[in-house]
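Progress against Task 2.4 (sequence-to-structure conversion) is shown through the following example record, which the project officer requested during the mid-term review.
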Amino acid sequence: MNLAQLRALRAVHEAGSVTGAAELLDVTQSAVSHALNSLENELGLRLVVRERTGCRLTEVGRRLIPHAAEALRHVDRFAEEAAAAAGLVTGRLGIGAFPSAHRVLPAFVREFRRLHPAVEVLLWEGTDDEVNEWIERRVVELGVVCGLRPDLHTVPFANDEFLAVLPADHPLAGEPAVSLADLEDDPFLLSGAGCEPLLRDLYRSRGLSLAPAHRVHTMSTLLAMVRENVGVSVIPSLALDERRDGIAAVPLRPPAPRSLLLAARSEQDLSPAARAFLTTIPDGGVTLTAPAEHASAVL
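Structure tokens generated for the chain above:
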């Protein structure tokens, strides 16, 4: 058994075809087919079912994939640690984050790539739950999370605050601050982009219950609905986009800060690239106090 065989099996699983696997590995289709056939012959097992529309793994092939992926991860880490010992940070670094965190993340990625051009950085965007799943399944090595996470290794990344977003002509739009109770008479809009657990905790801490009248998938849809006076919402300041016409963003009373953390499965499991990326983050993270502040102002 050799690494080429394991890489071919993993690539076919990810791509769903020999052609796609060859493109992922940057080798010929015949090389992928040869690696798969030799692995099956060596094990005496059928691992891949060839179909007209592509390939799929057999049940035993699917059971072997996590072990193949783990073996390849250790081999890659061996090479990365050896290179780091020689003064060169290499490899691939996957980072997952929910949409509002991507307002800050690119500036750090730009600085990291300037310092370590041999590292390939892959950014993934998803919901809070998706980011947590990606960390657990090692789809990404680092992920942006919120709140206390004793189950993960975390470092402070960024701090912002929750704001009430209201139609520009709302009676409370000109107030210096509003309470959550002030918003109870208006239909509440909730975005599926994330933050629902934090919002529920926030409402609970102030003796209120969160009762959304409307649920939407994206923050852009939510803000469009606020503009059209469909309802109001509470969102992190980082989630505000540059277009502010028709919307008033009002601080909460008392303030409701939000802390973003960069998380990994464990400190011992960090690759040289992940360790190097974490050194680009200032102690305590960056604090974004103004709703209009953008990632370009962070570094």
